[in-house]
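sry for the spam today, last one i promise. struct tokens for design, 80 residues
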């Protein structure tokens, strides 16, 4: 990825739930921490000295069936 000295202290990633025309229009399903830690983008940052700080599932203001996931990763002190 990048040399450690050029990496930000905090990295914010955004993901959207995958809607499907075939899905029933029930309540949206929030992402779990286990699912988040399995995302390739998250795994790449974790491998570069980051840890999961927090995450938030938000409903899209434009589509109530779409979940917007915000993931906050921070550099581990020993990786700084």
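last one done:
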């Amino acid at each position: 990825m990048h040399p450690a000295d050029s990496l930000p202290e905090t990295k914010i990633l955004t993901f959207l739930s995958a809607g499907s025309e075939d899905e029933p229009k029930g309540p949206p399903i929030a992402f779990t921490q286990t699912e988040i830690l399995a995302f390739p983008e998250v795994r790449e940052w974790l491998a570069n000295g980051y840890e999961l700080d927090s995450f938030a599932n938000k409903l899209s203001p434009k589509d109530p069936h779409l979940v917007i996931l915000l993931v906050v990763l921070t550099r581990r002190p020993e990786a700084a």
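The two ends are 15 Å apart (CA to CA). ok im logging off now
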